[in-house]
Amino acid sequence: MEYDNIECVSSIDGLNEDEIHHHNLHHPNPHHGHHPFSSSKPHNATNNANNSNMANNSNMANNIVGATGITPATSVHELLECPVCTNSMYPPIHQCQNGHTLCSTCKARVHNQCPTCRSELGDIRCLALEKVAESLELPCKYYNLGCPEIFPYYSKLKHEAACNFRPYNCPYAGSECSVVGDIPFLVAHLRDDHKVDMHTGCTFNHRYVKSNPREVENATWMLTVFHSFGQYFCLHFEAFQLGMAPVYMAFLRFMGDEAEARNYSYSLEVGANGRKLTWEGTPRSIRDSHRKVRDSHDGLIIQRNMALFFSGGDRKELKLRVTGRVWKEQQNPDAGPCIQNLCS
């Protein structure tokens, strides 16, 4: 299959420039710009020129693989990249009558018009390229982050969606933050960019004061990051409307994957004026979004009427002090049950 200078043209009717990105695959066509019957050379000269062009193309392909270190699988993988959205293509892969391909999602976006040559796409499937994809085995796209796995082309996407080496989303909940990275990077990002409080130790406390506890229209939230057992944890506190009732919630998230988060437990306690409310649970991984954890009610939830009992006085001012600690569960190989590993 030949790809003649594949280029997505942004001036197609019905397309926005933001939707179509230029994506050139430089595969020179030796006959580009020359009509096969317009040459004034003798027949033998034409054959010699064609043979020379074929040899040059063969040498070019060999040089691409040898000089740059690009493997044939990588070259095919580039052919499987949609020239419009630049994502990997999966069946059905569409093509125009001239052999230019694109994914099924982009076929609808370009209004059935080839973005390369502007011919009508029709309903032609590129079965050859789909068969080639079935034979490919490629590394996970997070190999540079440590993933050693290699997968068939059509299984790779499913793995990457749940790969343990994929970057984490920023756990900051106060604004939409699109930053992703590994844990050390995110810790520095939270400290430097979001100005989050950082603490060390396995115990923590949070003090929340609100002059008018009946106003929760503007949700209040706070985030504290603390370092314990060589790991990082996010302590969230939020005031929000649960149905028609204002509530206050505190919960813990582990900066790592879910399997490792299950090695830890934590407790939260709020109380005053002879009253106390406690919660004990397992921290959730930051793979789960802040909203997902909050909406699942997996944490210490304090209703406003109950919270006012902790404040005392004339109940016109809300004062909450939430304390807690985290510990690591260690399996005793002799006794069997888990024992708590408390930090000093």
TrEMBL record:
One GO BP annotation of this record: ubiquitin-dependent protein catabolic process
Molecular function, one GO term: ubiquitin protein ligase activity
Domain of life: Eukaryota
Record domain SIAH-type: where: 135-195
UniProt cross-references to Pfam families, sorted A to Z: Sina_RING (PF21362), Sina_TRAF (PF03145), Sina_ZnF (PF21361)
Ranges for region Disordered: 21-58
Gene3D superfamilies: Apoptosis, Tumor Necrosis Factor Receptor Associated Protein 2, Chain A, Zinc/RING finger domain, C3HC4 (zinc finger)
Basic residues bias spans: 23-35
Composition skew (Low complexity), residue ranges: 36-58
Record-listed E.C. numbers: 2.3.2.27
Keywords: Metal-binding, Transferase, Ubl conjugation pathway, Zinc, Zinc-finger
Enzyme class name: transferase
Pathway: Protein modification; protein ubiquitination
GO CC terms: cytoplasm
Domain RING-type: from-to ranges: 82-118
Annotated PROSITE patterns: ZF_RING_2, ZF_SIAH
Catalytic function, reaction form: S-ubiquitinyl-[E2 ubiquitin-conjugating enzyme]-L-cysteine + [acceptor protein]-L-lysine = [E2 ubiquitin-conjugating enzyme]-L-cysteine + N(6)-ubiquitinyl-[acceptor protein]-L-lysine
Family the UniProt entry places it in: Belongs to the SINA (Seven in absentia) family.
Protein name: RING-type E3 ubiquitin transferase
